[in-house]
Amino acid sequence: MDVKIFEKSENKIVVEIDDINPAFANSLRRVLLNEIPVLAIEDVDVIENTSGFYDEGLAHRLGLIPLKFSKLNLKDECKCNGKGCSNCQVSISLDKKGPCVIKASDLIFSSDAKPIDPDIPIAELLDEQKVKLEATAMLGVGRDHAKWQPAVVGYRYVPIVKIKDKSDIAAALKACPQGVFVKKDNTIGLSKPINCDLCMRCAELCEGISVSQDDTKFIFTIESVCGLSAEELFLKALDILEDKSKDFVKAVKSVL
Ligand code: SF4
Q1: CA of 181 to the centre of ligand 1 (A)
Q2: Number of helical (H) and strand (E) elements in the chain, helices listed first
């Protein structure tokens, strides 16, 4: 197995993983989407709401605000079994009077949790309209609700682009939307074949080009939409996958 990093920032990782199959790639993607605990608003107690936005809509919008949180204060291995305690939840309050647009930055948190983007709009208040509420954010996982989905994750096969005959491939240079081909010294060659998105346009236009895919090599793109970095999510997903595999092996061995 081989791993190559193509791109790495706080919020995004693009990585190639070789010598795996679609089942393994899908397992990794599903763990990334569904199994990593992150923070989202779960309970909302509306004390006063004279805005044009009904209570349920307000609560739904609050739940979808991505929140950053300190791993030191919130423990995903909390022992309260989902009942909620200071280890896995944060209290939030909001008290605003119009005219104004309520933004995520108006939420007051009991700990150092905060919205990823303070400018996320929640509701618009006209003159004299008021919203007052208390809420609780809890750790949860994406398999229970999409608001706890920590990342956007996609993968694709590694493309294989080959030039078999250079005599009539000018159309491919123009048609390729990903800049895979380059013209140098009056000759067309390959520039960045890894960027190919397998649209097949070049192969349809030029018989001298073949495009295929390697179904043992996958390019993963992981974009964090929670308080954890893309690297933390990737490593956490691998730990979870390892633990699940160990549990499975143990369970099978115990009955054989
Ligand atoms: S298949 Fe599409 S993206 Fe890939 S090289 Fe051909 S034109 Fe470019």
Answers
A1: 9
A2: 5, 14
